[in-house]
Amino acid sequence: MYVCLCHGVTDHQIRAAVTEGHATRLRDLNRCLGVASECGACARCAHEILQDTLANQHNTAKALPVAA
Ligand code: FES
């Protein structure tokens, strides 16, 4: 779905930016995708997707076995 209509940014692009290590804060999404740099209406939704993706990464990392 489109999150930022001003820049045509989707939730998939936001999740990719996070999982590829380009973004850990809304400011990073602003820099790399332009999110929340115009009207700002997308800021809350983009932040929620960012936090959700970071939490999923953290939970996945905790579930992985530690190599001995
Ligand atoms: S909808 Fe993202 S800046 Fe306007």
Question: What is the C-alpha radius of gyration, as a whole number of Å?
Answer: 13 Å
CATH homologous superfamily designation = BFD-like [2Fe-2S]-binding domain
Share of β-strand residues: 5-15%
CATH class: Mainly Alpha
Going by helix content, strand content and strand pairing, the class is mainly alpha
Considering DSSP H and I runs of 4 or more, what fraction of the residues is helical? 55-70%
Short description:
It contains three helices and two strands, in the order E-E-H-H-H. The chain has 68 residues and is mainly alpha-helical. It has one domain: BFD-like [2Fe-2S]-binding domain (Arc Repressor Mutant, subunit A).
Describe the overall structure:
The protein is mainly alpha-helical and 68 residues long. It is built from 3 helices and 2 strands. The radius of gyration is 13 Å and the shape is elongated. The structure holds FE2/S2 (inorganic) cluster (FES).
Defining traits:
68 residues; mainly alpha; two-stranded antiparallel ribbon; 3 helices; elongated; binds FE2/S2 (inorganic) cluster
Question: What's the topology here?
Answer:
Layout: E1 2-4, E2 9-10, H1 11-19, H2 26-33, H3 43-63
Antiparallel strand pairs: 1-2
Helix pairs in contact: 1-3
This protein binds FE2/S2 (inorganic) cluster.
